[in-house]
Amino acid sequence: MNEKKEVGEIAADYVKDGMVVGLGTGSTVFYTITKLAQLVQQGLSIKGIPTSLQTEKLARELGIPLVSFKEIDHIDLTIDGADEVNTDLHLIKGGGGALLREKIIAKAADTFIVVADSRKMVDILGSFPLPVEVIPFGVEKTGKYIEALGGKPILRQKKGSPYLTDNGNYILDCSFFEILQPGDLEKDLNLIPGVVDNGLFVGMADVVITLNKQKEIDINLRK
Q1: Domain count, the chain
Q2: 167-209: pLDDT as tens digits
Q3: Active site residue 102
Q4: Is 125 part of any domain?
Q5: 134 and 98 in one domain?
């Protein structure tokens, strides 16, 4: 069974005619976007707003009409993946490097749906290193401030050079091991000069679609 395909395609059922849809980034939501493109070909009328240049390219290739924030004032529904989801539906995102645009688009949506295979579901966040988007200037000092909060930051690399986000920033992948108070850590990180935002999405997910231990679809709603 392809869990990512299973949950990704289920999420497409939430999209209705006339909606503005935030299109996430990553290997699971890839299947959502592919399914939406099939529905568009069958007559579904939607407008998508992508969370990354990668997603924008994919959506255009598949024929999904796209808009920007200049053209819309709200998003009906955003569908995106996650690197970790805990029992309170708090998330770690940013493994694909698009955390800032993902958070902007998730925040603007009336409903935020997360698709995640069963391996992403955890009791406590932190096994996956937390991505923190930072400006290049002073990155060494920014990393020291993160260390003071208990993290161990590593500058993300690509082909021997610092990885650049779509916004021209760096990413520090920060090991915290166990994040017991994700809301506090999210705020503390964002108070550090040089930090643009971080991959903790606290209290943002309205619905998480995953699979249970019996490999059946499991739909979790925010309490």
Answers
A1: 2
A2: 999 999 999 989 999 999 999 999 999 999 999 999 999 999 9
A3: yes
A4: no
A5: no
Q: How far apart are CA 135 and CA 20, in angstroms?
A: 31
DSSP reduced 3-state for 10: helix
Residue 188 sits in a domain whose CATH number is 3.30.70.260
| Domain match, 23 and 104 both | yes
Q: Structural domain of residue 171, as residue ranges? A: 130-196
In Å, how far are 45, 52, 151, 218 from 97, measured between CA atoms?
29, 9, 19, 27
Q: Is the pLDDT of residue 1 over 80?
A: no
Convert the pLDDT of each residue in 72-115 to its tens digit.
989 999 999 999 999 999 999 999 999 999 999 999 999 999 99
For residues 54 and 26, membership in a common domain is answered with yes
One domain for residues 116 and 146 = no
Tell me the pLDDT band of 212, cut-offs 50, 70 and 90: confident
Helices (H), the chain: 3-11, 29-41, 53-62, 99-108, 139-148, 182-190
Q: Side by side, which strands form the sheet with 195-198?
A: 152-155, 170-175, 130-134, 195-198
* Closest to 166 (Cα-Cα) out of 74, 102, 112: 102
Q: How far apart are CA 154 and CA 197, in angstroms?
A: 16
Q: In angstroms, rounded to a whole number, what is the distance separating the alpha carbons of residues 53 and 165?
A: 10
Catalytic residue among 6, 56, 84, 102: 102
Report if residue 85 sits inside a domain.
yes
